[in-house]
Amino acid sequence: MAKQTSERATTAINPARQGGDICRIALIGFGTVGRAVAKILCESGAPSLRLTHICNRNVQRKKQDWVPADVVWTDDIESVLKSNVDIVIELIGGLNPAEQILRKALESGKSVVTANKQLIARCGPDLLQLAASKGCQLEFGASVAGGVPVIPALRTGLCGDRLHGIAGILNGTCNYILSRIENARVPFSEALEEAQARGYAEADASEDLDGGDARAKLAILALAGLRTRVEPESIRARTIRPVDAVDFDYAADLGCTIRQISRADLKEGTLFADVGPCLVPSDSPFGRVQRNLNLVLTSGQYGGDMAFLGAGAGGDPTAVAVVSDVMFVAQGLAGGKRDVASYVSTPGISSDFETPWYLRFFVRDQPGIVARLAQILADHHLNIDSLLQKPGFEKASLPFVITLEPCHDSQLHPALERMAGLDFAIRPCLCLPILR
To answer: Which pTM does this prediction carry?
Structure first.
């Protein structure tokens, strides 16, 4: 397991920065994470780091007496961008006006630190190129996995390797819900309500449940680790909503459990990428991750496999990642170093993985069901590996499972379309990859 510390964050800052001894920092956004960032900066005692501006809407209501008296509180973003600050921290989130703020900061020669996953997922390559052209830096370590230093590791610690694969549990909300269903065998709706009550899920959790959040993070990991430009919307996202408690019973019979997995494999100019629920071995790193933790695994040509595990959300862990980025940028400014944007390719995107598959059906019991399904699978040259049916269920709503030998996604889905029209099916077939 990778420790939640970063070599970048623990290295002493060189006070002899070009142009002066002090690195001036402006913080835009004073919510949960922004407040924690300000707290760390104010209490760090680093003489070469100075928080000079805090910018937020309704700023008068945000003021805190623990912030030094010489810090400028303002709601005027333009005044911050025109000031003599060296580093701008953007923590307001969203695409607008965040993109305009970042571009203006970089164009004026100011380095930027952000935790904005949606912005980096969509505009990261262009912003990195802009930063390089202006001789400044853009760091976004907190945009994926909160306080887990996976982005710094990909951009610096593993940049000497040639990575070809990244997979992860990137959404703590989904992992909490799935592990709760697994451990208590509660319905999906009950696990979701509990996650919302605990503050792990928003009232509208669609971005988490349907994979939008995780695929934005996967696009960032592909940029940082695989050096590929990927539009998040080009990555297929599958929802976790149909996963039922009975699926964990059948998964256990197969030595597996169920997790939302984000995966990207770069092969011969094509990026195979997908986000969604998968069966994973119970004793694997993914299978052992519980509650709202995040895990990222990387595969490299020379360095092999690496793992990064830790808290993927929360004000304090995310703030640690932000401040680590600030310190890294300050070191670069002190030594006169400039970040150089790496070459970024634009591969073709595919979700056509070849894996074994788990197919779960809910049917009205009648003779000939298995024979009809087997015929459809045979017609599409798909081989059955096993059939599982637990006793004790009502005949009017009977669950059973067919697992398939490895086949491509493109082979399977025409068969699923035929199965969807069968008269005995009372729910759509749940189709999950089995990752070994």
So the answer is: 0.87
